[in-house]
């Protein structure tokens, strides 16, 4: 058994008459030009050598193939192109078996779909996530997948870019068998026996018939979720085409659409987001710093935020000690956490055993001494400086010397909290977004004295929770709320200048925000921000422009949706423009002698985007954010900025 080499990334061995071809292109075995050329050479060799009865394709490491090489997008194409390689596999005269040893995504799954048999390890992840990059599958995915699993299932998977487990893929019919034992041995045996029977070429199979009604329903659902993005809509169209035309025509139309979308601004934006997420994890100065092992997490305060954090950490396998001030509050905290888990069970996202396992790792007590065991303590108590500093001083006397202490403050200065403790170097900020068990964004605040290993541990913990951690420095509101404040201020200036709240909201929603700014205000409630403005009134620069309309609304008891009225009115719960608010706005303009001007939707969005980017520039200059792309991720994952626009800094050309 000697190794053959077909390119830098493709090698093979001959086992029992089967050529086992290994794709070794770290980190994810992406289908680079070298991989494509090597695969063609390996197939050429296998065709000519009569001692080879069949071929097995497998990936080196933990990935089968992570997809086309995204770094090649935007560069001149290099032959052989992926569709040629895939056609060669499907048409091959001898059996080609995909031994799926890990993720088979995008072009990786398209390679597997062209193979004559697909076998996978149970841990493999399978999917066509192209729409998340603003494109559609470009090498047969939209044409071959429906031939295997039907139009309805293919629409659902491709238009959402949903990645499924090998088990689900097997049930759907994407995978032929799950292999629990040695994958190579099993694949070689399967390939050998396949040599004796006719080959099952996916592209020659008919698309299984389904009712038009079911297909229309799946298509409508996909378009609803797409919120105007092109990728999912085109994916639906292409999948439907598979049943209506020949493979060759379907493939040609798919490729044409793929190329057009790949070169679009939407795809450039989503690629930016993809690479931004990978870059965010790389923090200067932490390259050689090992994170501390964290197993037991203390959470002080089990209210809305604390219970969400507890559920996120329980889901990730941590032991949790929740702390409350009284027995009764501890009981309530436990009920709140159990309630979130029960909801997950009711909706089918969690099974009873999973819930019980989580509850088995949870204790909520009224005695802070319980924190002596914790590796990390997160405080999620009332956002008040005196309350927080007193708590951290008390924790100094309870926790282990090597424990890490995190504050979840949104607006207080964590440097001040740290300075009040005996060991400021072990204090870090973990600014979760609500609901903390759902929101992916987590601002990790690197305080003035935070030790590198504490920051590294906080980052590793955040990643362990499945969050997207963004490191930032200390400033009022951190990255997200600083930009949000600037954007909010600009929106209120515009209201005074002539735009009505519903016009601003409509412009934002048309741009891709799930909800306009003023509708969000009303949903969240206006009281907390009003209280903050009143506290800040004494120190506010009297020369700075200040829009008092929100204060007037609160003075009139218009606290938002829960109160039945805010920026809008809510008769029967339905958001409607309220002439009373329009009149209040007109009065405010008149008091300042502002002659209202009209704004187009485009002008509204442009002005808001400019305000966000200007504040982002300030955060970069101040060293609060490490890179422009981190700011984009914060706005996308915490504030509803449409990912397919790339973020305010991307739009502003800070690339
Ligand atoms: N092309 C180029 N680079 C890629 C890549 C790809 N398809 N997928 C991942 N990488 C790079 C990442 O940028 C990162 O690089 P870095 O170390 O320099 O930052 C490195 O590989 C590791 O990536 P992750 O940190 O994401 O590694 P994980 O182990 O967490 O995840 C993965 C592995 C599940 C494969 C994940 O990387 C992933 O989801 N990749 C993208 C999958 C995808 O979208 N494929 C479709 C591509 S488009 C396509 O195939 C078009 C076709 O239809 C023609």
Q: What order do the strands of the largest sheet run in, or round the barrel if closed?
A: 14-13-12-15-16-17-18-19
Principal-axis shape: globular
Q: Overall pLDDT, averaged?
A: 96
Give the low-pLDDT segments.
none
Query: Helix count?
Result: 26
Main β-sheet: number of strands, strand sense, barrel status?
8 strands, mixed
Number of domains: 3
How much of the sequence is in beta strands?
A: 5-15%
Corresponding CATH architecture of the largest domain = Alpha-Beta Complex
Q: What structural class do the secondary elements suggest? A: alpha/beta
CATH class of the largest domain: Alpha Beta
| CA-based gyration radius | 28 Å
CATH fold label of the largest domain: 2-enoyl-CoA Hydratase, Chain A, domain 1
Bound molecules: 3-hydroxybutanoyl-coenzyme A
Roughly what percent helix?
40-55%
**What is the terminal-to-terminal distance?**
50 Å
Give the number of DSSP strands.
Answer: 19
Structure description:
It is a single chain. This protein is α/β, with parallel strands linked by helices and 655 residues long. It has 3 domains: 4-266, 2-enoyl-CoA Hydratase, Chain A, domain 1; 297-472, NAD(P)-binding Rossmann-like Domain (Rossmann fold); 480-623, N-(1-d-carboxylethyl)-l-norvaline Dehydrogenase, domain 2, CATH 1.10.1040.50. It contains 26 helices and 19 strands. It has an 8-stranded mixed beta sheet with strand order 14-13-12-15-16-17-18-19, with helices on both faces. A 7-stranded mixed beta sheet has the order 1-2-3-4-6-8-11, with helices on both faces. A 4-stranded mixed beta sheet has the order 5-7-9-10. The protein is globular, with a radius of gyration of 28 Å.
């Amino acid at each position: 058994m000697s190794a053959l080499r077909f390119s830098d990334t493709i090698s093979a061995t001959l086992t029992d008459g089967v050529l086992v071809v290994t794709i070794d292109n770290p980190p994810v075995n992406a289908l680079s030009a070298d991989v494509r050329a090597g695969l063609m050479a390996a197939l050429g060799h296998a065709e000519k050598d009569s001692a080879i009865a069949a071929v097995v394709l497998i990936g080196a490491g933990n990935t089968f193939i992570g997809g086309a090489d995204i770094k090649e997008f935007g560069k001149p194409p290099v032959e052989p192109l992926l569709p040629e390689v895939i056609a060669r596999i499907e048409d091959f005269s001898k059996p080609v078996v995909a031994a799926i040893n890990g993720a088979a995504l995008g072009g990786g799954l398209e390679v597997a779909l062209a193979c004559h048999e697909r076998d996978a390890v149970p841990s493999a992840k399978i999917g066509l996530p192209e729409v998340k990059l603003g494109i559609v599958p470009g090498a047969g995915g939209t044409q071959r997948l429906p031939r295997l699993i039907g139009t309805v299932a293919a629409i659902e998977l491709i238009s959402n870019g949903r990645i499924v487990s090998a088990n689900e893929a097997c049930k759907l019919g994407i995978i032929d068998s799950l292999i629990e034992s040695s994958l190579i041995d099993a694949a070689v045996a399967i390939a050998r026996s396949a040599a004796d029977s006719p080959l099952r070429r996916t592209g020659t199979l008919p698309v299984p018939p389904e009712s038009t009604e079911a297909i229309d329903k799946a298509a409508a659902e996909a378009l609803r979720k797409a919120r105007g993005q092109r990728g999912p809509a085109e994916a639906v169209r292409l999948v439907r085409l598979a049943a209506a035309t020949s493979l060759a025509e379907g493939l040609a139309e798919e490729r044409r659409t793929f190329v057009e979308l790949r070169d679009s601004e939407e795809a450039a934006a989503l690629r930016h987001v993809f690479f931004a997420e990978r870059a965010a994890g790389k923090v200067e100065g932490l390259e050689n710093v090992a994170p501390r092992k964290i197993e037991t997490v203390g959470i002080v305060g089990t209210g809305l935020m604390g219970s969400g954090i507890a559920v996120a950490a329980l889901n990730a396998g941590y032991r949790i000690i929740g702390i409350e001030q009284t027995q009764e509050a501890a009981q309530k905290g436990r009920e709140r956490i159990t309630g979130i888990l029960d909801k997950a069970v009711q909706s089918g996202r969690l099974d009873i055993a999973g819930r019980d396992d989580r509850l088995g790792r949870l204790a909520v007590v009224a005695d802070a001494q319980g924190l002596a065991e914790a590796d990390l303590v997160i405080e999620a108590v009332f956002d008040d400086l005196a309350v927080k500093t007193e708590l951290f001083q008390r924790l100094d006397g309870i926790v282990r010397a090597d424990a890490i202490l995190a504050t979840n403050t949104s607006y207080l200065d964590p440097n001040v909290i740290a300075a009040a403790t005996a060991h400021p170097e072990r204090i870090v900020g973990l600014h979760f977004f609500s609901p903390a068990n759902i929101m992916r964004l987590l601002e990790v605040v690197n305080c003035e004295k935070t030790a590198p290993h504490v920051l590294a541990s906080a980052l590793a913990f955040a990643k362990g929770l499945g969050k997207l951690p963004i490191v930032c420095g200390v400033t009022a509101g951190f990255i997200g709320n600083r930009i949000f404040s600037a954007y909010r201020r600009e929106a209120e200036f515009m209201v005074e200048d002539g735009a009505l709240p519903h016009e601003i909201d409509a412009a934002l929603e048309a741009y891709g925000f799930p909800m306009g700014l003023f509708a969000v205000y009303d949903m969240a409630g206006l009281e907390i921000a009003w209280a903050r403005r009143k506290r800040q009134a004494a120190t506010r620069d009297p020369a700075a422009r200040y829009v008092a309309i929100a204060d007037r609304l609160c003075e009139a008891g218009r606290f938002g949706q829960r109160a039945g009225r805010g920026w809008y009115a809510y008769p029967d719960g339905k958001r409607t423009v309220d002439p009373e608010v329009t009149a209040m706005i007109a009065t405010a303009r008149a008091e300042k002698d502002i002659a209202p001007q009209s704004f187009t939707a485009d002008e509204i969005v442009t002005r808001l985007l400019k305000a966000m980017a200007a504040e982002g520039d300030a955060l970069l200059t101040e060293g609060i954010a490490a890179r422009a792309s981190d700011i984009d991720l914060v706005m996308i994952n915490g504030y509803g900025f449409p990912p397919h626009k790339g973020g305010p800094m991307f739009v502003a050309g800070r690339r």
